[in-house]
């Protein structure tokens, strides 16, 4: 009986713990660690500029260093078209909500830099013209603890 109760408790706890969205987690962590948040609206399997943005900026060491230096929380708001690339129902719902709030025009790629409270600091429509180092340095310029 004790084992059954423990199993039910752990299952319930894991459901409740996962109920918080990625964006809410990013805001919480950003607030606790005085970090910025970057939302990137992309179509990872159909949008050529989105694919280039990820390859040439998001996946680079210069960009990844922003997270390592506790400057940035990154949230990819992806809208793939291929069935095999579809996110979970929860992530689809969150992505739709974020798009409604921050990307009502449906621009891809669309990248938004926010402070920890969710205030927009800067936006990039389309593929940024900067290389990964310049893009990362621009984000650093908004960081409150330079």
UniProtKB/TrEMBL annotation:
<dbReference type="InterPro" id="IPR036249">
    <property type="entry name" value="Thioredoxin-like_sf"/>
</dbReference>
<dbReference type="Pfam" id="PF13098">
    <property type="entry name" value="Thioredoxin_2"/>
</dbReference>
<dbReference type="InterPro" id="IPR012336">
    <property type="entry name" value="Thioredoxin-like_fold"/>
</dbReference>
<feature type="domain" description="Thioredoxin">
    <location>
        <begin position="1"/>
        <end position="144"/>
    </location>
</feature>
<keyword id="KW-0732">Signal</keyword>
<dbReference type="InterPro" id="IPR013766">
    <property type="entry name" value="Thioredoxin_domain"/>
</dbReference>
<protein>
    <submittedName>
        <fullName>Thioredoxin-like</fullName>
    </submittedName>
</protein>
<feature type="signal peptide">
    <location>
        <begin position="1"/>
        <end position="19"/>
    </location>
</feature>
